[in-house]
Specification:
Blueprint lengths: L2 E19 L2 E15 L4 E6 L14 H11 L4 H7 L8 H19 L3 H5 L6 E3 L1 E4 L3 H13 L4 E5 L5 H14 L5 E5 L6 H10 L5 E5 L8 H8 L3 E3 L1 H12 L7 H12 L2 E4 L18 E3 L6 H14 L30 E3 L1 H4 L11 E3 L5
Parallel strand pairs: 5-6, 6-7, 7-8, 8-9, 9-10, 10-11
Antiparallel strand pairs: 1-2, 1-13, 2-3, 4-12
Helix pairs in contact: 2-3, 5-6, 9-10
Length: 371
């Protein structure tokens, strides 16, 4: 089966509340959808939506990949394209994710199975989801109580945005009220020093902490933090940095910085993979069987559905999928929103029929022209 047509569309979706990312204030989520069509008329959708301020983003990120999209992919057999994506890093992570998920969608349609089953025949058909709680200390406490009442078993809390004493008191309050069966993920977004991280970890009960994500700006300290505190550390921004280095790398991965960064990341206990911002761990050259936790970055329903399929295949039922950023969108490119908002679990069958139902009137065609 040959790939006969590639179309690209841009979208702009309003957010329920402004999103602050470093120096950027976003009131809309902008990205692109890539539609791949075969000679038999099957169509697969993928989403490319890097975030402003993150490695690899630029206002013209599509232009940097457009020549390769047009010149190298049309009239290529679908299976050849699928196999080639398992090793190529000449596309940016966002474009790679769009192509990989679109090809996966096409291949699953022709095979008559759901995408997660094509990735892993033993993948579960339903997933647990993680609630994302942010805001003021009071808002986080209320948010945790609401999530617990809705049946969530895993909650992710942002820390590092208040003073250390306030964060410690907030987490202590949350853990004191929480069922012992629930797990907490803590994400400091590299806000703390080593001393602050150790002080925080030594001050809170740790039994229900599933992992601590990127607490310090110096990620090389993470293995030591794990050893001193007993709390598993997760890498997220570090994997994004490694992806960016590999995308720009001409040394075939032999650059000393890449080798050192990869070796450190392999020592952490959990790998958080955001497909819009990062290559999959195997493309990063990561070795080991560390748990992979799938996480979203404010994608539309097209990208979020793909992340859920990846979560079923790569996280299985061990870790809840972190796709709650989807709930921050006021609208979607799909005709119906995915049934995951305020829901602690999701049946993947419930999104199979929605992932290709794109509202074409919400998209703007992107001109495909070779210059």
């Amino acid at each position: 089966m040959l790939l006969k047509k590639i179309e690209i569309f841009k979208y702009r979706l309003p957010l329920k509340n402004p999103l602050h990312l470093g120096d950027y204030k976003l009131e809309r989520r902008e990205g692109a959808l890539i539609a791949l069509q075969t000679e038999d008329g099957f169509c697969g959708w993928g989403e490319a939506a890097p975030l402003p301020g993150f490695p690899g983003w630029s206002p013209n990120f599509l232009n940097h990949n457009i020549q390769k999209l047009i010149g190298g992919l049309t009239n290529m057999p679908l299976e050849k394209l699928r196999l080639s994506l398992e090793s190529r890093k000449d596309f940016s992570p966002a474009i790679f994710f769009a192509l990989h998920s679109a090809v996966l969608s096409l291949a699953s349609r022709t095979a008559g199975v759901s995408p997660h089953q094509l990735l892993s025949p033993v993948a579960p058909s339903s997933l647990s989801l993680c609630a994302l709680i942010d805001g003021s200390p009071e808002a986080r406490i209320r948010g945790v109580a609401k999530a617990a009442s809705q049946g969530y078993k895993t909650i992710k809390l942002k820390v590092g945005r208040d003073d250390l004493k306030t964060d410690i008191e907030t987490i202590e309050h949350v853990l004191d009220k929480l069922s012992p069966l629930m797990k907490i993920r803590l994400d400091a977004n590299q806000a703390w020093s080593l001393e602050e991280t150790l002080q925080f970890c030594n001050a809170i009960p740790t039994e229900q902490i599933e992992f601590l994500e990127e607490p310090t700006w110096d990620s090389y300290q993470l293995p030591m933090i794990q050893e001193k505190t007993g709390i598993p550390c997760a890498v997220d921004e570090t994997l994004q940095q490694l992806s960016h280095c590999l995308y720009k790398d001409e040394s075939e991965g032999a650059d000393p910085q890449i080798i050192k960064l990869r070796a450190m990341a392999e020592e952490t206990k959990v790998w958080v993979w955001k497909p819009s911002l990062c290559y999959p761990p195997h493309l990063l050259g990561m070795k080991g069987s560390n748990p992979i936790v799938l996480s979203s970055a404010y994608e539309s329903g097209v990208g979020t559905a793909a992340i859920l399929y990846y979560a079923a295949a790569f996280s299985e039922s061990r870790f809840a999928a972190g796709i709650d950023t989807y709930s921050r969108l006021a609208e979607d490119v799909l005709t119906d929103m995915l049934p995951i908002i305020d829901s602690p679990t999701i049946s993947l069958r419930s999104i199979d029929s929605l992932r290709g139902s794109v509202k074409m009137n919400s998209l703007k065609p992107y001109p495909l022209c070779v210059t």
